Amino acid sequence: MNIKNKKWTEEEFFKMREEVLSQWPTGKEVDLKEAVDYLKKVPEHKNFSLKLKKAKEEGVTLAQPRAGVALISEHIELLTHLQNEGGADLLPSTIDSYTRQNRYDECEIGIQESRKAGRSLLNGFPGVNHGVHGCKKVYEAVNLPLEARHGTPDARLLTEIIHAGGWTSNEGGGISYNIPYAKNVPLDRTIRDWQYCDRLVGFYAEQGIIINREPFGPLTGTLVPPSTSNTVAIIEGLLAAEQGVKNITVGYGQCGNIVQDVAAIRALESQMEEYLREYGYHDVYVTTVFHQWMGGFPQDEAKAFGVISTGSATAALAGATKVIVKTPHEAIGVPTKEANAQGIRATKMTLNLLKGQRLPMSKELQDEIALIKAETKCMMNKTFELGNGDLAIGAVKAFEAGVVDIPFAPSKYNAGKMMPARDNNGAVRYLNFGNLPFTEDIREINRRKLEERAKFEGRPVGFKMTVDDIFAVSRGVLVGRPQ
Ligand SMILES: CCC[C@H]1O[C@@H](n2cnc3c(N)ncnc32)[C@H](O)[C@@H]1O
Questions:
Q1: CB–CB of 434/415 below 8 Å?
Q2: Cβ of 193: how many Cβ atoms within 10 Å?
């Protein structure tokens, strides 16, 4: 497939659109003119982009949960509970796994079975099957902005439907919703399909409707080094900007060392803005999202609140625009609405106590920001080089070459040669560089920090450290010390 990082013409976009809307009967409900009129009536306090902009200007960190169930009325009850009892600032609708695989027929069965069982038998909201009417019902029932959160390699129809339903934000991207989520979907296909999603947002922007786009920051959520996830976020942010997206939230998943996590957010925001300016996108508003710990959680709910609170504190000290909330049921599965609301209240308590506080600049923080930006720049430079200046082509080639390499990803299009491990303070470092295009200085810094841990633990630097780190947090510690 020949892709290029060039804004699609309206003709190219509308030509593909007919096929997209024919993928399921509810596609017929999408009428672009009606959607424009409906979105123009979205009040400021329910527009995702505007609420994020206001929060950034006020220096406030907003709290957003994940949440989704099969039936519309139960989903509305859930979101209303999170809004009123949880105190959420922004609302999701987490989309179910069948929809993420475009298996809408399975969703139909899941909806029928859920009706019979009187409880949700899907692990999220089947937005395509409920269609524009269903998404409008959800949007009209709540009093906060709504975002679709999912993991969909081909989200074209879902995106058409949720935006026509008044939802003013969409998570995902051609890399971040492929490599961590799919085994066998070619990267050029998902980069093209997400160009479609972004081009729709660009079309709405041309009508004066600003919709927020959020590349999925954490990726596999398993020891992903900050510069690796930042590189993917920046690539997806630039690809979105080319399609006309004007409001982008770049994200990062908590790793656990506070200095490194704060540095990751600071480096991400400033480097995203630097690259947007460098490539001529001067009217894109950038915000950040910090995801509370995405790895294994302790079963014990009190310990889970400890994890949730460290993530909230780090998000506040970093000055992230929003934080994605975990729940005390994380180790079990889809949380009850009560547990979900508890996660939000714990998060907001911490955010309120730390309001206005930031981790002060220090040599350690400055060095970490500089290291993350230098590592990111190496990967970005090589990606542009491989694409002869075209970022879309470069991204495909960068993954083929292992120049960008996401740890523990299921996709066969990911090299899987790079391996991470924590240093003695819990910061995530590069243990094996694989084919990453790092300078010798960068390699030396990573090596030295892992040697410090090896010396402290009296064992050699090696993959055993990685394995111990993967299970550490659910065992109640950050660094996986030898047993
Ligand atoms: C990348 C997202 C993974 C996280 O997304 C949470 N998640 C998934 N589906 C739901 C849902 N239906 N309601 C509340 N949280 C949900 C999981 O717990 C996990 O932490």
A1: yes
A2: 23
CA distances from residue 164 to 7, 200, 272 in whole angstroms, order as listed = 22, 11, 29
CB atoms within 10 A of CB 471: 13
- The rounded Å distance from CA 66 to ligand 1 centre is 6
Q: How would you classify the pairing of strands 428-432 and 419-422?
A: antiparallel
Residues 320-329 have pLDDT tens digits of 999 999 999 9
Residue 171 CB less than 6 A away from ligand 1: no
Tell me the C-alpha distance between 459 and 219, whole Å: 30
Q: How far is it, in rounded angstroms, from Cα 212 to Cα 204? A: 11
- Please give the DSSP secondary-structure letter assigned to residue 107: H
Could you tell me if the ipTM is greater than 0.95?
yes
Grouping H, G, I as helix, E, B as strand and the rest as coil, residue 372 is helix
Angle between helices 391-401 and 226-242 (to 10 degrees): 150
DSSP letter for 82, please.
I
| Atom from ligand 1 closest to the CA of residue 221 | 1
pTM over 0.90: yes
Q: Is 447 a catalytic residue?
A: no
Distance 266 CA to ligand 1 centre (A): 26
Q: What amino acid is encoded at 325 in this protein?
A: V
Query: CA 271 to CA 381: how far, in whole Å?
Result: 13
Sequence-separated (6 or more) residues with CB below 8 Å from residue 385: 394
Q: How far apart are CA 300 and CA 288, in angstroms?
A: 30
Helix (H, G, I), strand (E, B) or coil at 461: coil
